[in-house]
Design a protein that fits this description.
single chain, mainly alpha
């Protein structure tokens, strides 16, 4: 049996590899949300009202597309394989709580480091505090959100042995 910390490490390294192989797709799917966040935090005039609502609906559509791209990356054989895996007995019999704790701990640490890095890059990128925040959210939307989405799916796959 593989130790829980090794499973957590395997999930991280698998997620990094998948992210690298699909970097262009994930970045393209996050350009519109990143631009919308930049505009919102930079103080553009249309950030309220109907246009803002439409922009947020478009962002939601890109987020859904990102989720499907991440699912496709983690389960390249398609979701039929996932469905079949899920029907093979109780999910609770497939993992230990130690594995869940290790996965959660590593995900939290990696996400914390990435968010601290984005905050630092945002602060050094501009003098204006609003522009610093806008830049930070561009980085988060372009890189951290897609990686974390992918990483969570990989962690679930590894932990549940799907």
């Amino acid at each position: 049996m593989t130790p829980p910390h090794e499973l957590a490490w395997r999930a991280l390294t698998t997620a990094v590899g998948l992210y690298g192989r699909n970097f262009g797709t994930f970045t393209a799917l996050c350009l519109v949300p990143a631009a919308a966040r930049f505009a919102a935090f930079a103080g553009v005039s249309w950030r309220s009202g109907a246009i803002f609502g439409i922009v947020e609906l478009v962002v939601a559509g890109f987020r859904i597309a990102l989720l499907f791209a991440a699912l496709r990356s983690v389960w390249p054989q398609g979701l039929d394989g996932l469905k079949q895996s899920l029907s093979q007995g109780s999910l609770f019999s497939r993992f230990s709580w130690q594995e869940v704790v290790w996965q959660g701990l590593l995900i939290a640490l990696v996400d914390l480091a990435l968010n601290l890095g984005a905050g630092w890059l945002g602060r050094i990128s501009a003098q204006d505090p609003a522009l610093q925040t806008a830049n930070e959210f561009v980085i988060k939307n372009l890189f951290i959100i897609p990686f974390t989405t992918l990483y969570l799916l990989v962690a679930v796959k590894v932990t549940l042995r799907l």
